[in-house]
Write a structure and sequence with these properties.
The structure is a homodimer.
Chain A: E1 12-13, H1 23-29, H2 39-56, E2 62-66, H3 70-81, E3 87-92, H4 95-106, E4 110-115, H5 124-134, E5 138-142, E6 144-145, E7 150-151, H6 157-163, E8 167-171, H7 183-186, E9 190-192, E10 206-210, H8 212-221, H9 249-256, H10 268-284, H11 286-306, E11 322-326, H12 333-344, E12 346-347, E13 359-363, H13 371-387, H14 397-402
Parallel strand pairs in A: 1-12, 3-4, 3-5, 5-8, 8-9
Antiparallel strand pairs in A: 2-10, 6-7, 9-10, 11-13
Helix pairs in contact in A: 1-10, 2-10, 10-11, 11-13, 12-13
Amino acid sequence: MTGLPIDPPPRLLMGPGPVNADPRVLRAMSAQLVGQYDPVMTGYMTETMALYRAVFRTANEATLLVDGTSRAGIEAALVSLLEPGDRVLVPVFGRFGHLLREIAERCGAEVHVREVPWGTVFTARELEEAVAAVRPKLVAIVHGDTSTTLAQPLDELGAICARHGALLYADVTASLGGNPVEVDAWGVDVATAGLQKCLGGPSGSAPVTLSPAAVAVLDGRRSIEAGLRDDRDEEVLPASRIRSNYLDLAMILDYWGERRLNHHTEATTMLYGARECARILLEEGLDAAVDRHRRHGAAMAAGLRGLGLTLFGDQSVRMANVVGVEIPDGVDGEGVRGTFLRDYGIEIGTSFGPLHGRIWRVGTMGHNARRDAVLTTLVALEDVLRRAGVAVPTGGGVAGALGSYTQEAA
Amino acid sequence: MTGLPIDPPPRLLMGPGPVNADPRVLRAMSAQLVGQYDPVMTGYMTETMALYRAVFRTANEATLLVDGTSRAGIEAALVSLLEPGDRVLVPVFGRFGHLLREIAERCGAEVHVREVPWGTVFTARELEEAVAAVRPKLVAIVHGDTSTTLAQPLDELGAICARHGALLYADVTASLGGNPVEVDAWGVDVATAGLQKCLGGPSGSAPVTLSPAAVAVLDGRRSIEAGLRDDRDEEVLPASRIRSNYLDLAMILDYWGERRLNHHTEATTMLYGARECARILLEEGLDAAVDRHRRHGAAMAAGLRGLGLTLFGDQSVRMANVVGVEIPDGVDGEGVRGTFLRDYGIEIGTSFGPLHGRIWRVGTMGHNARRDAVLTTLVALEDVLRRAGVAVPTGGGVAGALGSYTQEAA
């Protein structure tokens, strides 16, 4: 009646994420709990804040975890910063841009959308023109959107926002740890992420960082749990009250900060995991990890081309950790994915919206950005494609396309 | 620079929760991930829904997990059910009642509060009079409020709500699994919980159940992520749109239900843990687990009385799994807690609001509702109290108060 113990079959997750967790992360998560105000626990929290400052490349004091998936981090940022009627600019180049738009709408903001076709990104000039025209309080944008596999260059957008008095929020869930992300150098005010992509952990914890300017917005809206906090009892104007308690970053900051005011009951096991993800990444070195993603991601793309497949989207701005390939004419995309999972235990991704049925998405990220994972996936895919009737090139093919990669260090 | 591996010192968590996780739960959480639409994963999800139906004692099809702490479950229920201007009745008998009030206010509801002094609960007659006077759409109430250690009897409230056309929401986070909770028999429409109390898991996943009447309210507000879902493109009136995306139970239901529409990336490891918590509880048997909490909780209370301490609140409605004791005059309550943690590795709870500095809270729940944990705590507390200058009774004391408990099965 209660079913069997958890014992999933071995899977190699080579989709757009989630991917396999690094075994070190799962081991860290198996540690026993401590109380949420135990000095050991507050020590882990303080260390985790410092670790994620390094991961985000920021000096932001306000760097912490939200207890939920990457989507919880996004909503925490938007609901905490946006008041009803605030103007927001959302440049959309894929599925997750639409998500930002939708969440901002639910916050009651006045949302202005700019869109480019899926498979392309915005030029800095297009972004500046939009910011100048909309004059938003906040620009909310996705950095790497796995739906199209592309990364919007953000290195000029912070300066553009600063010139026009706007804050910049970036969703770096899919890019962080596998592509360059420079929160301070790029002038990003708020960035949110998750563990399940290049960080090599399970979904369920959202690292978030806020600049002093963003914290000042929170301070302006700072609210209280009247009667629930012992140290404050002033009332707050309902008009500016943050609409969520659970995702109220002002309160969550008070919990992570020196005052350590009670809020939620920290998800200790997820915190253990998030801390270990950052430790693994920083032990390797952020630049080295980005280079590893670049190298294995490029090999995956070259190998897919060697199988005769056509890559999707503007390759000059493709993320290092995921590549889209067009499903060959006459091939049942979902059938191939099913065979791949059943016969090889390997998962690749389907796609959404305008790309549904048109492309597969293949990821090479986190713990799975490794040579053996890349080669296994390519060899297995070659077999499955042949069985699906695809005319895979012979004489050369994958091995030819990969060149010296197969002899390189793993 | 990246700090040491997670390796917390051994702690016995005998506060109001979180408590130590059952090692079986942590082992289940160490399993590797599978993809979120892998048939293995959707199988685990379907099993988890069935397990929590048994835990909540409900036939509700809409029984699932919210990916966040127990507070995320509370907010998901309230933000999904309440529209701005809706009348809500919140009977408050402790800290967490104030939390319900505050979250309902942030949802824009018209909140009506009734309060009784901390240490007491409402009579059924008081509740019925309040419901009749306010005529709310929803009554939102805490079942067991750890701040006062009391449980509000709910066995008549469902019928009262039904007579007056109100829905009933109950926060059963602290009571579920250690006290009788009968969702269907009591007529509770929506109940939410967490893992970190009697369920013996880490915080970070919130089991939720919704009656068909509650689901009908969600259906009336059902919203879309325009452009993000392939199968629907109708627009929805902004007036009734659920104000949160992350905690939108209509969308989360579509993800857990047969349509399996994409929403957040499931927190797979937390789901493994939540599933195992329910399996452990149901293998023991819900009635047996409640009886175990009653037995060890009663022994803890008797032992504390044997130490000369005075119990807090109306003992006739105290929760089985937590007891409040008055801090003896002249004793530094936080000093004793600190010594207790440092010298014995045992944590007991402080308290909030009007009880701050007045009582300690001692929990006996989940994996820690065991004889050895009870006896260890009492023996250690006797030593720490003596060292703090408390005149602990001699000749009898703990052993005398416990009687045959020390000879019973563990």
